[in-house]
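Bug report (template v2)

What were you trying to do?
Predict the complex of my protein with adenosine-5'-diphosphate.

What happened?
Run completed; filing so the output is reviewed.

Input:
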Amino acid sequence: MSFLTLEQVTVRYESDPVVVALDDVSIEVEAGEVVAVVGPSGCGKSTMLRAVAGLEPVGSGRILLDGQDLAGVPTHHRDLGLMFQDHVLFPHLSVADNIGFGLRMKNQATSEQSARVLELLDLVGLSGFADRTVDQLSGGEAQRVALARAVAPSPRLLMLDEPLGSLDRLLREQLTGDLRRLIDQLGVTALHVTHDQVEAFALADRVVVMCDGRVAQVGSPSELWHQPASVFVAEFLGHPNLWVRGDDTLLVPVDAVHLDHSGSRSAVVDLVEFREGRFRVSARSDDDHPGDTVVFETDAACVVGQNIRFGFDAQQTQTLGRTVRQPKMS
Ligand code: ADP
């Protein structure tokens, strides 16, 4: 049995109209694994974390942690570490007191608390920061203190909800790597929620893609990227070349498209971006499949409005069925 199991979990909000925020969701997280839950805003990610945390009642289904059915177990007895975007540090406490907060709640001996706090400060690279106040920290340092605080009491499961959400992109990218290394060093099992697919892919061993309260696909980052199960997943992951052909959609990887003067297809360039040493060109086809978005990368400079001819490697394409979104039952 997995370390964390969600078995056909349904959560409804009895608002008007009723919202089925989680609809028959089953996922499994193995011990030591980092699983990211991704999907557009409103797909049920936060509700999933809140249900595991015991902050939202489960309508039907079961949540099991290390073999224990969590039904009826209050939040503070679930032994979870929470790092939420809006779960800010306590401004009136020092860095050390923030990190030691959960240990004091557990009534751990003072000497053990101090040793654990020092160990964590070292681990997150903030030795010497113990007596600082929270307002003397940069955004990245504050996030590391928040992580140290979440893991200090050695929770069974670490849950992260958009942990880097409020930081700018460059800092997020750096901290994503730091966070992954720290999670590995701690050996903790983690469930991580984000709307950002890049962050999910960078952090997680496996990714759960959610759509409208349901699981759209589960897989490793590479499985999801190379074999998206639906147009929804392909779009969400950022595959741009999705060409509608009757009831099917052809997924053409960016790498499979190339400029070719004698290519069989033609398009008009509508956007050129310089990215990491190459041009990323977006064009719209004007041949017998008009309107296909054609994105490819090239070393040749292209200009907006230019007519190009292109080809693509048909062997790299995949056919995706139409996304079937089942109606929600209220
Ligand atoms: P996400 O985290 O993916 O953005 P949420 O879990 O916050 O999604 O929300 C899932 C759905 O449940 C959304 O349609 C949202 O509007 C709805 N929802 C969330 N919280 C409540 C609530 N307290 N009352 C009613 N509906 C809610």
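What did the reviewer find?
The chain has a mean pLDDT of 91. The chain has nine helices and 18 strands.
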